[in-house]
């Protein structure tokens, strides 16, 4: 009984770290540009397909690490292109609802284009560790899952260092706090937008590789990560990077426990139930700032 | 006076054309498309009441559609209720679910409301998928009875062919549009638009925003439920896909491409996209790709970038520019 509980907590932490990686990209983009990107999970889908392609060539742990890097680069570039073509022209022109609509259009487009290019049949990213498991005493897990957790945490640490220790990172934070003051300080805001979008989508791409390795890769897989990421960033407060990491773990653990002790079929409903209840009590999320500030 | 006569002549002409269509077009497939477009017109128009008029983003509209479809289908299958009554029951239960979803909308807006409404629809879709004893799960309900024949002045009218179902859907569409026209032009509709523009200002001049939001959610969901019931008895099968996010996004795309916040926009959008995507089916044979849904996304992005008021707004702009040129 107790071991099952600890086992599910561990599973939840692993899944939660993946939700976190995908969600911090979404929350960064929202914080800096005020964009709610419903196509975010589709960047994860593209990242997963990059890994599928690369793992055919190099089906080793080396190839898996390489595909993390490749997914980040490819998806980041795709993000910068879509930002330039779709989101930049819409910024400051219309309301946030219009940007949501445009991102839904991008969601439909990416999902169906990938159906054209990759066909509808699901694919697997081969396990680079050949199903090796590790016993931690209180619970056991596959090396693959542990790898996902470790590299997610590496991504969190690198992002924190980037945002706090580098000039560009500080510029991103400054822009998210006060756009006008950032412009007055001589920050090239368009460059910051492109960079934020690129980094945010690259993180989604990396998260997509993890997600695709644990589950399957198929063209419509992007919808779930999008919804999960939104749940996570609402929990953590929209625009709050550390909140998103925290929210990811909360959602992952809640889903793992809900799936075990309530019902596996309704596992995906757990997040939505949490978010509906949280929003009924606190309309801006658990750690959200109120609108006035 | 002559203007009024001209107006009535125009209306009569449109009615005659609409009534004559099933006699002029004998192609069953085109009639099928018209019926589906009609069902989508009810869906887009009711979604537009929320998004276009009240400014409430509801990404769970397919849930109302599904609730209406499942309610009417189950009542007919399990209790033998006549589908004619089923349409109203489906609409009423959908309206009740709309009322429930309206409650969180009282405090939420923008992305928060969008996610809550998605969550509502996703949970209902999971229920439809997993409550196998009632809904037959992912297979869906099949063998739903069609509309029963009615006897009228000695004539037996049955509703097994597209030909006659067309008239049922046409009547439903006309009633829906008539109601929505009355609603949007009434005090209630004007208050909704005030609410969309500035909620605090609307509240400060005495509008009870909570009551308005709950009412508009309930009314909108009623029409979507009716559309669902029509679909169930026309197609004879309902699956959990009816409640999917994809279905909501289809409704959204049609409405936005047609023109948000206008009465004609959703009608134009539903008709144009239904027939455009079928027209592309022939192109699909050429390029060996199913590009129909990709076109939806592409059109939605183009609309947001270049013609935010949709096809209707585009035509209005063109008309205005021609008129002003003529005056010069």
Please tell me about this protein's structure.
The complex is a heterodimer of chains A (293) and B (328). Chain A is mainly α and 293 residues long. Chain A has helices at 2-33, 40-57, 61-90, 96-118, 143-165, 167-177, 179-184, 189-214, 223-236, 241-261, 267-281; strands spanning 133-135, 140-142. Chain A is built from 11 helices and 2 strands, in the order ααααββααααααα. In chain A, strand 1 and strand 2 form a beta hairpin. Helices cover 78% and strands 3% of the residues of chain B. Chain B contains 14 helices and 4 strands. In chain B, a hairpin with a 2-residue loop joins strand 2 and strand 3. The interface between A and B is large, with 44 and 41 residues.
What's the gist of this structure?
The complex is a heterodimer of chains A (293) and B (328). By secondary structure, chain A is mainly alpha-helical.
Rounded to the nearest angstrom, the radius of gyration of chain B is 20 Å
Shape of chain B: globular
Element string of chain B (H = helix, E = strand) = HHHHHHEEEHHHHEHHHH
Average pLDDT of chain A works out at 85
Specify the biggest β-sheet of chain A: 2 strands, antiparallel
Oligomer: heterodimer
Which regions of chain B contain 5 or more consecutive residues with pLDDT less than 50? none
Beta strand count of chain A: 2
User: How would you describe the shape of chain A?
Assistant: globular
Instruction: Report Rg of chain A.
Output: 19 Å
Identify the notable features of this structure and list them briefly:
heterodimer, A: 293 residues, mainly alpha, 2 strands, 2% strand, globular, B: 328 residues, two-stranded antiparallel ribbon, 14 helices, 4 strands, 78% helix
How are the SSEs placed, and which strands pair?
The complex is a heterodimer of chains A (293) and B (328).
Chain A: H1 2-33, H2 40-57, H3 61-90, H4 96-118, E1 133-135, E2 140-142, H5 143-165, H6 167-177, H7 179-184, H8 189-214, H9 223-236, H10 241-261, H11 267-281
Antiparallel strand pairs in A: 1-2
Helix pairs in contact in A: 1-5, 1-6, 1-8, 1-9, 1-10, 2-3, 2-4, 2-8, 2-9, 3-8, 5-6, 5-8, 6-8, 9-10, 9-11, 10-11
Chain B: H1 2-24, H2 28-53, H3 61-79, H4 83-105, H5 110-130, H6 132-135, E1 141-142, E2 150-152, E3 155-157, H7 162-185, H8 187-197, H9 199-204, H10 209-235, E4 237-238, H11 245-258, H12 264-287, H13 292-306, H14 310-327
Antiparallel strand pairs in B: 1-4, 2-3
Helix pairs in contact in B: 1-7, 2-7, 2-10, 2-11, 2-12, 3-4, 3-5, 3-10, 4-10, 7-8, 7-10, 8-10, 11-12, 11-13, 11-14, 12-13, 12-14
